[in-house]
Amino acid sequence: MDKILLNRMMFYGYHGLFPEENKLGQRFTVDVELMVDLRQAGQTDDMNDSMDYGQVYQVIQRVVEGEAKNLIETVAEKIAQSLFNAFNKLEAVKVHIDKPGPPIPGYYESAGVEIYRERQDYV
User: Fold this and answer.
1) Less packed terminus of the chain by CB within 10 Å, N or C?
2) Inter-axis angle of helices 72-86 and 53-64, to 10 degrees?
3) What residues contact residue 73 under an 8 Å CB cut-off, 6+ apart?
4) CA 85 → CA 33, 51, 80, 123, distances in Å?
5) Does the record's keyword annotation contain Lyase (predicted)?
6) CATH number, domain at 102?
7) How many independent structural domains does the chain possess?
8) Which residues of the chain have a pLDDT value below 50?
9) Distance between terminal CA atoms of the chain?
10) Which range of residues forms the domain containing residue 51?
11) What are phi and psi of 65, to 5 degrees?
12) Residue 94 catalytic?
């Protein structure tokens, strides 16, 4: 399957279990792999045959910078659902979210989740 990759997108959100996370917020990074047939776009050189990267970014931004969630698992799921709702050509998506410096005991660069969903998962 062909893929569009958008890497290390950065957003500021208020997701987490602890009150300080919901009050102060923090940075989140998101990577997505968008599985879509790009053959026609490659032949026609027409954006209508692909997916607009800027629109993809905006969909993800609305989720990450929107309503606070307790779990980044929920944020990832909302991103996947929103992308399928916005883009009919999208066949599957992998969403990876990193939360740098999570407020949990120990020393971490980040904590993260990665999910893979197919359009049929939402039918």
Assistant:
1) C
2) 140
3) 113, 115
4) 16, 13, 9, 11
5) yes
6) 3.30.1130.10
7) 1
8) none
9) 21
10) 3-122
11) -95, 5
12) no
